[in-house]
Batch of 2 targets.
Target 1
Amino acid sequence: MSDTELKPIYCPCCGSGKTGTVMLCSGTLYSVKCEHCGLISDGKSTEIEAVKAWNTRKPMERIVEQLNEMIDPNVDIDTGEACNNWVLDLENAVVEECIKTVLKGGKE
Ligand SMILES: [Zn+2]
């Protein structure tokens, strides 16, 4: 695919195909925006760069969903009462930190 044919893919947040490039700062900064949920990418100096950055984004909501599944409810399966297993609490805290990191989008 040549750069001129490069189009933004579906929205990683809502899955909508209604995505397109938008110009910010009168022609010096471009982003990709989802018309459905309003998600907007970081500004890049060219449309091509903006589309490439958008298209290589990981589907964040699925990563968060997977991480959430790793959190152990830490309750007795039979009674539903809290087990207060500190090892599980510690593991859950680590996973929760990972979720926060993903939601923040990693390091700039
Ligand atoms: Zn969207």
Target 2
Amino acid sequence: MSGTQEQTTPNRQGVPVPQLLRTDTAAVDSGSARRLATDGYLPLPGLLTADGLTLLRQEAAALEALAGRRDFAMACMDDSPRHMTTLGGQIIAETSQTIPALYQDPHLVALLGQAAGEPVTGITDPVERHVLNILHQAGDTHGAHTDDQPYALVLFLEAPADPADGGLLHFLPHAGSLRDLDTAHGARTVHHRPGDAYLLRSDTTAHRVTPLMRPGLRRTVLNFAYTTPTARPHPTGSATELYT
Ligand SMILES: [Fe+2]
């Protein structure tokens, strides 16, 4: 299928994929690649359109019925905690047309390449390529880790309005170890709103999601994994543990 056909194909709700995102966002400019390389993190505020946020929330709500609860310590990531509900890409692809189409949308992939300063491509692993992460109980957290793939685009569908309620991204670029996230100078904690997104240099940036601080809060994101033509894979098995 050509890119042009993909761009104009409506999803089940009749909204063309390009209208789900603001790919002309001012957040990506000639300095983005340098900032991403330095900070490990590039905020993309308001990347989702109002239609995009509404539609992806509907998709996520339907998918949540298929998602599984995960409560364990991940051995390959220094026993960091996982208290969350997840759904892997292989189930999402069987159920959603919109999310796989958005993942490979040429406008989005081009935007990410511009932001990264190098070509990015989708990955072939059906489990890891696009996943759903839901924190919905007090204490829920996605503990410290690095990703197997070099780039992660995270799209916020739900998030606590108040940073004091947790669910924040805590990250350290160019981390020597996951322990450095708590001790090293340079770690940052950032808050996002529904409709926001960020691009992370996710294989070298240690990162986690801080715990939800009380009942009644929800944080729902889609995580899209991308690679580059020159990236060397370093699979850890973490995606298999969390999403299968
Ligand atoms: Fe991650």
